[in-house]
Write a structure and sequence with these properties.
By secondary structure, this protein is of the alpha/beta class. Helix content is 37%, strand content 20%. The strands form 2 sheets. A 6-stranded mixed sheet has the order 2-1-3-5-6-4, sandwiched between helices. The longest helix is centred in the last third of the chain and has 16 residues, at 243-258. The model has no long low-confidence stretch (mean pLDDT 96). The structure holds 2'-monophosphoadenosine-5'-diphosphate (ATR). 2'-monophosphoadenosine-5'-diphosphate binds next to helix 5.
């Protein structure tokens, strides 16, 4: 039996095995996907050594906090990874480990399905980590010419300029209290509001007076409706959580590992429903 893994520091609430094992069994692929918690960099190194030796391992996914660290162990990177400098998917190709990024594809597809045009919109991104990079790259590939980024640590947002210089405008986080500053789309890529800290929100919609954002997106999917999304809905914005992005990035990873062609819409809906039940 072939093996696939998700590696990360804390995977207790991960629903990735559910998504991947459902896809694998649907396509009759004799493989199993499981989680491996790696507490530190040393353990990451040991994991990579194990993977290289084990002929049954096809590849693995990577989540927080190793999406950048993993690149050090990869022999080749895709063009997207070269730009984003973060990978969530690795495939073993012979002796080599090849790094891919499917997060941005998952984000882009979930956004396209909402049916809102992103071109010429004022877009605010909250956060400047790996998830923000996938988001900015997705928007860039969708033709967006300018995005505003606000992050708790200003320097981290500044460092994104090395990658996305032309389209980024960095806002000091205090500017989020300039409530008259208008945004059409607001996207949360931080972990603020994630279970179990469900009362917190990365944006104060109650005091925001500049109008109603057309669309508000939270990459968090647990809880399905964060305080951030709840407040945005109260304002009248259309909203979306991160579950579709999670499922679509997984589908793209399966395509890389097994050349699976497009999954039917009804099967994807079935996966989404099962995930919702599990969360
Ligand atoms: P990911 O790969 O999921 O993006 P990450 O690289 O650790 O994870 O980034 C997490 C993001 O959430 C960062 O932008 C982080 O802000 P800092 O750069 O200041 O660390 C943001 N974040 C996490 N906890 C936060 C909090 N309590 N308040 C504000 N921002 C927070």
């Amino acid at each position: 039996m072939k093996k696939l893994y998700l590696i990360g520091k804390s995977l207790r609430h991960s629903i990735s095995p559910l998504i991947h094992n459902k896809i694998l069994s649907n396509f009759g692929i004799d493989a199993v996907y499981s989680n491996v918690e790696l507490p530190d960099f040393e353990k990451l190194k040991e994991f990579v050594e194990m993977v290289k030796k084990d002929g049954d391992v096809v590849g693995f996914n990577i989540t927080i906090p190793y999406k950048e660290d993993i690149l050090e162990f990869c022999d080749e990177v895709s063009e997207d990874v070269r730009i984003i400098q973060a990978a969530n998917t690795v495939k073993k190709e012979g002796e080599k480990l090849v790094a891919y990024n499917t997060d941005w594809l998952g984000f882009k597809r979930s956004l396209e399905e909402v049916g809102i045009s992103v071109k010429d919109k004022r877009i605010l991104i909250l956060g400047a980590g790996g998830a923000a990079k996938a988001c900015i790259y997705g928007l860039y590939r969708m033709g967006v010419k300018e995005v505003f980024v606000a992050n708790r640590t200003y320097e981290k947002a500044e460092s994104l300029k090395e990658v996305f210089q032309d389209i980024l405008k960095i806002l000091p986080v205090e500017w989020l209290r300039r409530y008259e500053f208008k945004y059409d789309i607001i996207i949360n890529t931080t972990s603020v509001g994630m279970f179990p800290n469900i009362e917190s929100s990365p944006f104060d919609f109650e005091n925001y007076v500049a109008g109603i954002p057309v669309f508000v997106y939270d990459m968090i999917y647990n809880p399905p409706k964060t305080t951030f999304l709840e407040e945005a809905e109260k304002k009248g914005s259309k909203t979306e959580n991160g579950l579709k992005m999670l499922v679509y990035q997984a589908v793209e990873a399966e395509k890389i590992w097994f050349d699976i062609v497009n999954l039917s819409q009804s099967f994807l809906l079935e996966i989404l429903k099962e995930c919702e039940k599990k969360i």
